Backbone:
């Protein structure tokens, strides 16, 4: 499965200097509140979305639900004229990608520079870089292409007014190139002789985007960013809840819920009035309306549904899945995710989840490289956040964490033991 193996962000909200994060099959984001964990998830979601290059819209990618980061001024670090997100890939058609954003005249982030590196046809490393310069300027804008063996600039209006990645996903993918990919048309509109160096470079540009620029297809990222909030609880429903309406999917949910110790079965029944549907959950204590079982079980249903019914290996982005759930179920949830086929990036405050994943490494359910802990903290004066990459060894031990990480998880335990 294609994976993003590393991601870097700079000048985004609380991140000033470039912060680099290694990613594993299971990546845990830990740290106090307001240190950038949710921002990091939103950045990852945007980066994966852009890197797929499949039917992108011109909506700004940092506003994709559930990570609504707002316009440029609420996404970029205060005072920054641009921000950047970059990353490396495993098992992908590209080896690296980088996207830089400025502020457009509507106050939204707009791509000013986009670059990809990949293996060329001869096996050597190749690179394409596309930049627009200042998106706010009113004079004629140029889009500059730096390819493996050419350099070309042209009027942005002749290419598109949409973001670079959107242009790649909509037009280049379908074979539509500027000037109809015709050298004579290019020469006429650019007012250059057909023997000029610009014409030669235009020919190389056309050949590159027709056959040299690899675009992801089967090697795309299947990212599922789940809403952190459960739908409102009801005793009965005029229509069955969407995530429970399919009987075959309910069977998968029941099986997953049993593994988590939450329920033995789940079914839809007709209400006593006959014009509504109730959700019944079977546990060791009997069968009860979901409304009467407890909020923890209710809150887990959408998450369990999403994981259980997704048969394509995917990357799930989760925000505090432990909320409302008993520590035993938190640990079982971590075990369930470790034993399954999917990747996870999990923002969590639960040491039960962190410890169970470490135990999974010790039990060889996970390899040490499968688990990465990213620890977020503010610097001493609180002006910016830093990301520490923490690995584990084959026994699940945390390797060289910063002192503040140990304080984050161990201080209260040491107090209870009378060590502080």
Residues:
């Amino acid at each position: 499965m294609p994976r993003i193996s590393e991601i870097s962000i700079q000048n985004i909200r609380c991140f000033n200097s470039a912060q680099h994060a290694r990613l594993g099959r299971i990546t845990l984001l830990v740290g106090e509140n307001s240190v950038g964990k949710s921002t990091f998830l939103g950045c990852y979601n945007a980066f994966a979305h852009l890197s797929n290059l499949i039917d992108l819209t011109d909506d700004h990618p940092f506003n994709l639900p559930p990570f609504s980061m707002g316009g440029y001024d609420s996404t970029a670090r205060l005072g920054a004229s641009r921000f950047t997100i970059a990353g490396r890939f495993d098992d992908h058609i590209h080896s690296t990608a980088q996207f830089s954003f400025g502020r457009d005249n509507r106050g939204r982030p707009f791509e000013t520079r986009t670059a990809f590196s990949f293996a060329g046809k001869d096996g050597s490393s190749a690179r394409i870089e596309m930049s627009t310069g200042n998106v706010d300027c009113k004079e004629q804008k140029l889009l500059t292409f730096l390819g493996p063996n050419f350099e070309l600039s042209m009027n942005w209006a002749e290419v598109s007014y949409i973001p670079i990645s959107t242009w790649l996903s909509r037009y280049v993918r379908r074979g539509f190139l500027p000037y109809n990919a015709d050298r004579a048309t290019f020469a006429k509109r650019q007012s250059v002789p057909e023997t000029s160096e610009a014409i030669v470079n235009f020919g190389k540009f056309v050949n590159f985007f027709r056959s040299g620029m690899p675009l992801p297809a089967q090697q795309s990222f299947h990212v599922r960013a789940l809403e952190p909030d459960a739908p409102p609880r009801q005793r009965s429903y005029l229509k069955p809840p969407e995530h429970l309406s399919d009987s075959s999917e309910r069977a998968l949910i029941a099986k997953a819920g049993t593994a988590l110790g939450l329920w033995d079965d789940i079914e839809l029944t007709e209400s006593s009035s006959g014009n509504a549907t109730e959700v019944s959950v079977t546990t060791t204590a009997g069968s009860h309306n979901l409304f009467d079982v407890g909020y923890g079980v209710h809150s887990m249903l959408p998450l369990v549904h999403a994981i259980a019914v997704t048969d394509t290996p995917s990357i799930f982005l989760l925000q505090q899945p432990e909320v409302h759930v008993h520590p035993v179920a938190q640990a079982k949830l971590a075990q369930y995710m470790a034993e399954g086929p999917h990747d996870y990036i999990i923002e969590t405050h639960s040491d039960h989840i962190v410890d169970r994943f470490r135990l999974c490494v010790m039990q060889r359910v996970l390899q040490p490289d499968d688990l990465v802990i990213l620890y977020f903290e503010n610097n001493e004066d609180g002006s910016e956040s830093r990301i520490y990459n923490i690995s584990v060894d084959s026994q699940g031990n945390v390797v060289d964490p910063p002192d503040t990480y140990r304080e984050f998880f161990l201080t209260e335990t040491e107090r209870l033991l009378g060590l502080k």
In short: The chain has a mean pLDDT of 88. The first strand starts at residue 3 and ends at 10. DSSP finds twelve helices and 18 strands in the chain. Residues 37-52 form the longest helix (16 residues).
